[in-house]
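Form 7-S
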Amino acid sequence: MIKLSPRRHQRCAVAVVLCVTWLLDDCSGGGSAQLLPAPAPTPVAGAAIFAPYQDMSLTGMSAGVQQNNLPLIAAASGITHFSMAFITSAANACNPEWGGVGPISGDTAFTGYVSQLRQLGGDVIISFGGEAADNLSADGGGPDYDLAWNGGCSSAAKLQIAYQAVIDRYSVNGDTPVSLDFDVEGDALASPTVSGVNTIDLRNQALAALAAANPSLKISYTIPAAENCLQAPEIRLLQSAVTYDVPVSVVNVMMMDFGAPIGQGQYGAVITAAVDDCQAQLQALGMNAALGITVLIGTNDESDETFLLSDAQTVATYARVQPNIKRLAFWEVSRDNGSCGSAPADLDDNNCSSISQGNWAFSQIFESN
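Output:
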């Protein structure tokens, strides 16, 4: 999902709060109280972290704030967690860079953002790949690509080194490694073999080794979904993760651009029905992973798909009672305003939602979850 200005999306694992109930026998009859065994812990509903995406290559102004200045956005919007998009491969040489910005080796600005957010009790998820990085130039991708796919990392060992470099640079102010997200879509998902190497397996081999070297690392996959959720390419990716024992904490499904007309105000209901299917699919795959939901706020890439504020409320209300949903997100923070009206030239405008709304209106709905 990335071009210099990517079009869509996509997390931090959430600690589950467990309630242990102490059951006392014969409390009213004067007998001695006996501690009974606590029931097996169950996930607690309403624990989803809201971590919307932001294209870090954007430097314009939205809602009066510079589009990639995360601490300023946090102060203006109340957002505490962000998904930073996207890490790609500089010159396709297995050298991690911020797409449209430059190699991470020279970055001090974004490390400062991460530090400030952590000091304020927030955090970031760093996302790799995206639309442009996951598609060949013939399909609107490039010029740089996913580190694991056409990005020059020809072995799992080289890929692990590139991922570790990102962890080392951005895990500031604490012993907790920064969470990593892998947005895999387009050609990288449908045609993963490069020079005879299955890059889906290559990525998962590297991630398994990376997790072993960073025991508290949180890994998420962000993948496309249809109205009945995962299709064959996404299932193969997750099956590979299971095969290589990658500890995927969140499978984040992109609920957008379904390609079929959706009635006004019905998008939220379509998404919640699809996520029900997603949960059943994860169980069938034997994955011990939570779910994330990422939407495209406002107008989608198709003129007959528009995600409204009422749809956001539907999704947030649904997530609140689903114990396995641990992340909510949208593409992207700089769109969360109504500055460009309701008839934009570009449906998926980076600067506004293309519907009537107040500044940060979607964020306020999701953050309240």
